[in-house]
Design goal:
Largest sheet: 4 strands, mixed
CATH class of the largest domain: Alpha Beta
Strand content: 25-35%
Number of domains: 2
Length: 415
């Protein structure tokens, strides 16, 4: 939706995840000047206005729960000669935006107004041309990187983003797909980081995009199939981008029976069908440097770890504290409510299992976090007693078909 807005001509999208986060982002793109039409299930058409062609929206850009959509669009607005106000639900209003705003200020963005701590609601005014910068991200965050690169599209010159640890690279891939000049080189000790350089003020051209299946959504039926005895599930067309499959790597180390079938290229990404069979899992040590490749999957990994034999230690989870909720605390509370042995040591989560189903039977406070809700519903599929979550409405933000999809596989989810 965002690249379609910034392009000249028509962009057609297939396989779109029609969650509330995406739809809110589409509404924001419309408000900034794009013409967007739904053609059918997962099929959309976007007619853009090109870089520099955006207009001031008539009202507030309400992103609901969409952290990614709001932060990326701040990059867009921050680099364009428009003024826009960003807002969202109670959860989004708690999330830190200063990490996005700091580099945008260096690029010429003005903050007209903001809530305490640089949170939404906030109003940004972009410059006639953004200032090209070299920026080293303070934390491994694809959202920071992407916001800077999107602002840099209207900068005369080269903008470089340096990250100490490589984060998901969908923005770089899409920039190339739409016609921008982007180079990526290894950076830092061991080449674990990356330097991404973008030449500003390209002419982006609308194109056709097939969206691969989201690994973060696939994580829930995947883990469910591993922990429910006798299961065998095939999940089709899952993105196999190496910067997104940290969960699959970890589960394979735990002894999971996961086979990659029919690998192919779609939408500039490698995809594969995943055949998953119920497995006896064992505890492992998950290195901190793997976190960027699986940051959204730790809650459901903690569920898998509860069924594993031995100790699973998930290291370096500080970024979980600034998600839709304090996910580290929310996961720990959910584990405690269901009788699962665990501790938090600093930013590390340690889960201890004995290879048998945990007790379950608890009620989990989701804190308006869709991934907490889905993870503990998955726990309930194989725990000794059913698990209850206090609210499931927010699941629609990222996986609106979660309940019918899981029910079709045999899950009993009521409420």
């Amino acid at each position: 939706m965002i690249f379609g807005l910034l392009s000249i001509g028509e962009t057609r999208v297939e396989g779109l995840l029609e969650g509330d986060d995406v739809l809110r982002t589409a509404d924001a793109a419309r408000a900034l000047g794009a013409s967007i039409e739904r053609l059918g299930e997962g099929r959309w058409r976007v007619k853009g206005v090109g870089i520099g062609g955006l207009g001031d929206p008539d009202g507030v850009l309400d992103f609901g729960n969409a952290g990614t959509g709001s932060r990326l669009m701040m990059g867009v607005v921050g680099g364009q000669p428009v003024t826009a106000t960003f807002d969202g639900d109670a959860s989004l209003r708690k999330r830190p935006m200063r990490r996005i705003l700091d580099p945008l200020l260096k690029m010429g963005t003005q903050i007209v107004s903001e809530a305490e701590g640089g949170r939404v609601p906030l109003t940004l005014r972009g410059p006639s041309e953004a200032i090209p910068i070299t920026y080293e991200t303070p934390v491994a965050s694809a959202q920071i990187k992407s916001a800077v690169l999107l602002a840099a599209l209207n900068a005369p010159g080269i903008t470089t983003v340096i990250e100490a640890a490589a984060t998901r690279d969908h923005t770089e891939r899409m920039l190339r797909l739409f016609g921008a000049d982007v180079s990526v080189t290894p950076h830092g000790p061991g080449g674990h980081g990356r330097s991404i350089a973008l030449t500003g003020q390209p002419t982006l051209r609308g194109t056709d995009v097939i969206v691969p299946a989201d690994p973060s959504s696939a994580a829930f039926p995947l883990v469910a199939a591993l922990i429910v005895p006798g299961s065998e599930v095939t999940i089709e067309g899952v993105m196999m981008n190496p910067l997104r499959i940290g969960l699959i790597t970890t589960l394979l180390e735990m002894g999971a029976d996961i086979k990659r079938l029919n690998e192919r290229e779609e939408g500039g990404e490698t995809v594969a069908d995943l055949r998953v069979r119920a497995s006896r899992l064992r505890g492992v040590d998950v290195p901190a440097e793997r976190a960027p490749a699986m940051i959204d999957e730790y809650p459901v990994l903690a569920v898998a770890a509860a069924f594993a034999e031995g100790t699973t230690r998930m290291n370096g989870l500080h970024e979980l504290r600034v998600k839709e909720s304090d996910r580290l605390a929310a996961v720990a509370d959910g584990l405690a409510a269901n009788g699962i042995d665990h501790t938090i040591e600093g930013d590390d989560l340690i889960v201890r299992g004995d290879g048998s189903p945990p007790r379950g039977g608890g009620t989990v406070a989701t804190h308006l976090d869709h991934r907490i809700a889905m993870s503990f519903l998955v726990l309930g599929l194989a725990a000794r007693d059913p698990v209850t979550v206090d609210d499931g409405a927010m699941i629609a933000t990222s996986f609106p078909s979660f309940t019918p999809s899981m029910t079709a596989l045999g899950a009993a989810i009521a409420g």
